[in-house]
Design a protein that fits this description.
about 750 residues, 3 domains, five-stranded antiparallel β-sheet
């Protein structure tokens, strides 16, 4: 070994010889570690709590948790259907007939027996129209009938009084004897057996469907995208060995990561469902670079010598691409959102384990066996090299124009950023053909939506008429948001439920005092007061309902107006509920992404600076990798595409992925310079030689990620499409903008040296 080599090169040379000599030992240890990781990896579970997407100190979350402890929570599942009336009878009259009320009670009883349902809180029509202990002649009075209908309209009966609903309240997740998903599955199974057709909806159902689709799609799309990647690699290289090697790196990495996560007690979240896809990106990209270099080296060298040369050449750039990718994910650890932090940690771990997997699997995988693949390059690779040569000559001969055009496009994108909007309509996360959207549409058209929330305020331990008058006035003011929809530009409340509504319905001739009316109410509807008034803690609330399927700005404006109106009567009123949490979910994710992106940017610049000892190179390398994010976000603004769960972290993630191309490009350029080639010729060789590996790896990955567009959970589909866009844009930036700027840097340095 030459002692005059730099320390880093001497270390790489020693490591190269070590992994070649010990390749079988390393392979055996890696296989043992993979087998041992299998069982703990199977125990890794998915955290399905939507509350985990908010910081523990977030006021929205605190108010929501406070309301759950005071009033028992409002995680409602709604079951609705339209009874078929006999010939000649109106649907409205049939809805309250004895037969329908009896059948509804029986169906509600069966639903209430499902574990995880608070049976005592179930609401159905018979409780209202046939309450025990109330004289039947009194219930048949027209004014009483109309009053009862006013109370149930939009809750237990549709506005046209042709469809009925059963309202089920779920037990808190920590008190349910079975998982929430199993509870909803059993409710759906009972609903599927019921005739006529029954629809199941509610915000807990949306949340569970979201996690279900994420879990299903993560597995299915992971397998599909991996198979497609292997097919693409097989067509490119026509080699079974190079088709298997990416699998040998990616799959053990996933098992190691999941096994370590399970042993440390961490759980997967909706965000971390992208673990498989992103690990596949990193692993396949790394192996593709080695494959391209190795196949070219085999044209002139033996297999072991070719591998030794490629390993020594790529070890340092691969190390820095892994480090910068890990930094991109590691920056998410600054987030205040628990799932985002856990996602950052698991991707940081997974990225570093890709490097370990390459060290222990590739030497044996490449050198094992006597049979070798054909070392000749295919015609497609030859044509690709010629195309890259033409591209380099074209853009560098018009370098100033190229840079000016890209800067102009970036300026247009920057203007589009201000038009970006946030998607708060949670239903937009599902395809229109999914069962949850079908049910939501049914409830939107018949019951005014399923968005349940509240406004709560301080209340005295002993209720009096002046206080109840304030409650009545607040209910009246909020009902103006039902009829005066112009206040919120086309959307409004569809139902307001106040404690005074039912209290006032009890005739004062029978119960003159508030205490007497409350006693009757507690006897007839035991859960009603408990769900609206907590005397021991001095809080009361009004329940609200709104349409879930509304534009983002309408929902947020409606929430703001409800808060404004409520604080006129009760200055310290709080607006909360699952509806409010879901409306602010993306904002919660976005709130600290700017910090994460800024930290990632600074650390990546430092890494590239340390790797190449050139600050100017580090700064220049940022342009082709930051601009694609700007183009993406600005383009979304111009096209009117809202930011959803899948795109909220795209800026932080994309920088760590696209910088890899810049590092490989600059490493190839430095290698050519050290070989004695002139500046322009070194850039040209890097654009064609390294560029071929960049094009092939990005092509394979984009095709693999295109499978994500088939996901039932639209944010995952958008993520796949937008990551593909970012990677293609980053590739073009590194093949067009980077060489142009490097040529400009050489001219500046030459002019300075001349002066």
């Amino acid at each position: 070994m030459k002692t005059d080599l730099p320390l880093a090169d001497r270390g790489v040379a020693w490591l190269t010889d070590f992994v070649i000599r010990q390749r079988l030992v390393l392979l055996g240890l890696a296989l043992i570690a993979t087998v041992l990781s299998y069982w703990p990896a199977q125990k890794l579970t998915l955290d399905e709590a939507i509350e985990s997407f908010f910081s523990p100190t977030d006021p929205l979350l605190k108010e929501y948790q406070s309301s759950k402890s005071l009033f028992g929570g409002d995680e409602f599942v709604l079951i609705a259907y339209s009874p078929i009336p006999p010939a000649g009878q109106s649907a409205s009259a049939h809805l309250t007939s004895s037969s329908v009320l009896h059948e509804t009670e029986q169906f509600a009883s069966r639903l209430g027996l499902v574990p995880g349902v608070r049976a005592s809180s179930t609401l159905h029509l018979k409780q209202v129209f046939r309450p025990r202990g109330v004289p039947s002649f009194f219930l048949r009075l027209p004014t009483v009938q109309e009053g009862l209908h006013d109370q149930i309209d939009g809750i237990l009966a549709s506005q046209d009084r042709q469809t009925l609903a059963i309202v089920l309240r779920l037990l808190p997740v920590d008190k349910s004897p079975i998982p929430r998903r199993e509870t909803i599955n059993r409710l759906r199974a009972l609903a599927a057996q019921h005739q006529p057709r029954t629809y199941v909806a509610g915000e807990p159902v949306q949340v569970q469907d979201m996690f279900l689709y994420v879990e299903q799609d993560s597995l299915l799309l992971g397998i599909t995208s991996t198979a497609l990647l292997m097919l693409v690699i097989a067509l490119m290289f026509r080699s079974l060995r190079w088709m298997i090697l990416p699998l040998l790196v990616v799959q053990p990495t996933l098992l190691w990561t999941k096994g370590l996560l399970a042993m440390t007690g961490l759980r997967l979240s909706m965000v971390s469902s992208m673990l498989t896809s992103l690990t596949t990106i990193i692993g396949v990209a790394t192996v593709m670079h080695i494959a391209v270099e190795f196949r070219e080296a085999r044209l002139h060298r033996s297999r072991i010598d070719a591998f030794r040369d490629v390993f020594r050449k790529l070890a340092i750039p691969i190390f820095w691409t892994i480090v910068t990718t890990a930094i991109g994910f590691g920056s998410l650890l600054t987030s205040s959102i628990t799932p985002v932090r856990s996602f950052g940690l698991m991707m940081l771990l997974s990225t570093l384990l890709v490097l370990v997997a390459c060290l222990v699997f590739l030497p044996a995988g490449v050198l094992l066996g006597s049979r070798d693949s054909d070392p000749q390059l295919g015609q497609s690779e030859v044509r690709l090299t010629r195309g890259l040569e033409w591209l380099f000559d074209s853009v560098t001969s018009r370098r100033r124009m190229t840079i000016a055009v890209l800067m102009f496009v970036s300026g247009i994108a920057a203007i589009g950023v201000k038009y970006v909007r946030i998607e708060t309509d949670f239903s937009q996360n599902f395809r229109k053909s999914s069962p949850i959207i079908e049910s939501l549409d049914f409830f939107e058209s018949h019951f005014g939506g399923v968005g349940t929330w509240e406004v709560n305020f301080a209340a005295p331990a002993v209720l009096d008429e002046p206080f109840l008058d304030r409650v009545r006035q607040l209910a009246k003011d909020l009902r103006q948001l039902e009829v005066d929809s112009q206040l919120v530009e086309g959307g409004g409340l569809t139902k307001v439920v106040a404690f005074t509504d039912t209290l006032d319905f009890i005739p004062r001739i029978y119960a003159p005092t508030i205490a007497e009316r409350r006693a009757i109410l507690r006897d007839k509807q035991p859960e009603h007061e408990l769900s609206l008034y907590n005397a021991s803690h001095g809080r009361m609330r009004l329940l609200l309902r709104a349409r879930e399927r509304q534009p983002a700005e309408v929902k947020l404006e409606l929430i703001r107006r409800v808060e404004e109106v409520s604080r006129r009567s009760f200055p310290e009123a709080r607006v909360t509920g699952l509806y409010v949490l879901l409306a602010n979910l993306i904002q919660s994710l976005l709130r600290d992404q700017l910090t994460s992106f800024g930290l990632s940017l600074v650390l990546v610049v430092v890494c590239v600076w340390v790797a190449f000892r050139r600050l100017s190179w580090a700064v220049i390398a940022m342009f082709p990798n930051v601009l694609p994010t700007l183009w993406l976000i600005g383009g979304m603004g111009w096209l009117g595409m809202p930011i959803n769960i899948g795109t909220a972290m795209i800026a932080s993630v994309s920088l760590g992925l696209t910088i890899d191309s810049s590092i490989h490009y600059l490493a190839g350029y430095r290698f050519a310079i050290r070989a004695g080639k002139p500046h322009r010729e070194a850039l040209r060789e890097s654009s064609t030689h390294i560029g071929r590996a960049l094009v092939l790896s990005n092509l394979a990955l984009v095709l693999g990620f295109s499978v994500l567009s088939l996901s039932n959970f639209l944010p995952l589909a958008y993520f796949g499409i937008l990551v593909s866009f970012t990677m293609v844009s980053g590739l073009l930036g590194n093949l067009v903008l980077l060489p142009s700027m490097m040529l400009g840097l050489d001219e500046i340095q030459s002019d300075s040296a001349t002066v």
